[in-house]
Amino acid sequence: MTQSVTSRAGDTGTVDRPIIELRNVSKRFGRLVVLDGVSLQLHRGQTTVVIGESGTGKSVLLKHLIGLLKPDSGEVYFDGRRVDRLSPKQWVEVRRRFGMLFQGAALFDSMTAVQNVEFPILEHRSVSPSEARAIAMEKLRMVGLEEFADKKPAQLSGGQRKRVGLARAIALDPEVILYDEPTTGLDPIRADVINELILKLKRELGVTSVVVTHDMASAYKVADRIVMLCDGQFIADGTPDEIRHSTDDRVRRFVEGRADEDELASLRAESPK
Amino acid sequence: MVGWVAGLGRQTVEQFAAFGDFWRFVGRMWSWMPAGVARWRNLRLLMPQFYEVGTRSVPVIMITGTFVGLVLAVQAMDQLANVGLESRMGVLVNLSVIRELGPVLAGVMLAGRVGGALTAELGTMNVTEQIDALRAMGADPIRYLVVPRVLACLLLTPLLTFYCNLMGALGGWVVSVYVFNVPSEPYIAYSRQAIENWDLFYGSVKSLAFGGAIGSIACYKGFTCRFGAEGVARACTEGFVIGFIVILVLDFFLGLGLKTVYDTLYGFRSLL
Asked: Using CB atoms, which residue from B128, B138, B139 is nearest to A106?
């Protein structure tokens, strides 16, 4: 039985309006239902981690927050304003307040690292090219990559590309940063560097963060709150400690990294003797 | 049987949906065109595209035009010589090149070379989420990526076609005069008599339409390709095939329309 868990925002005891809110959002692709009437409230300054098995719709959920996808039904709110029906031009103002780190960093291949970081600055601020470069270099310094400023993405390692992507995401000093699988594809040491950067940005910039990941080590390290998506619904919502000690079998299997017994049985049946 | 009909119905609906989606894409592109030419920030995106679309296409256009002229002269010489009209070779070669073969073959070459490159580039950006990253940063990817590319195709296809026509005329003249010993003076004189400004206008209108079609289709295919290397490759192939077919269809309807306009304005014109 799928147990839907509604947002625990009210439990925090705060009366602050959530900075982002999803109300009964549903999304399907063809016959595949990815989000099935989910509701979620995200509060300022919190780091919320969304976990779930591969293909459960975590990235789809993330893209709804910044308008890269529109829900089939339901509503999305940002800072009290409904945003799921905004036109592309109306979204420009809203997106200035977001930064997003994509799974593969999504750096522009034809630009150097510093040019990638300059891009949103030149796009949205009335600054000279030298001022934009100075701001971009400051952001690269924050992620420890100022000496790689003039390298192209093809000349950078995976971890370095992610850090440049992060510098670009914070170029406009956003209020909200979205991270799509920030540690995927990185070795444990580089992954921890990204985790530390996420924590550093929260400390120094006071940003609200939403992290989509299936890396539990990363989730436990950076999260104030963890929610788990399964079959289009949230089945868990709590602090890292509460998730670690969850009594829901699906949650326990995921956080402990245990395969489903039925899947294991079919694998064993197929193995040659 | 029911499954087959349902599949056919689904494909038909998808094709109509894609057709409508393409025109929405073109509509958004045109809405950004004025800003594309009016602001310096957008104009500097145009220069690299001029190089990619224009400068790098010159060799292939030159070769195409030259060989079109050469082949036309070779194929037509015997028949014209048989009725004593060798000196009119220039009329046949130059009119054919300027009105039809230059625009169409230049268009097809550009659909392959430029269209394929545009689809591959934008398709790769699509599958690596660079286009989503543009949107996430509040930049409209159509303004930033599509408008400069389509503008470059629109402005440079007529210029490249003119160059193709020039090389075609030169190729035809070289073969006629130096291989088939047709006297040069009457060749050029009859050509000058036969070719009007309207013929140049005719070829330019076609090449403008072809350039717009090539750029729009190639960019749309790149934006909507499926994920993975296979998706990008399929989009490149489909983009070229659709572009090629659209060039042929546009050639027919534009030819018919322009001929009707000419006949209405000037009546029939004999070339012999």
From this structure: B128
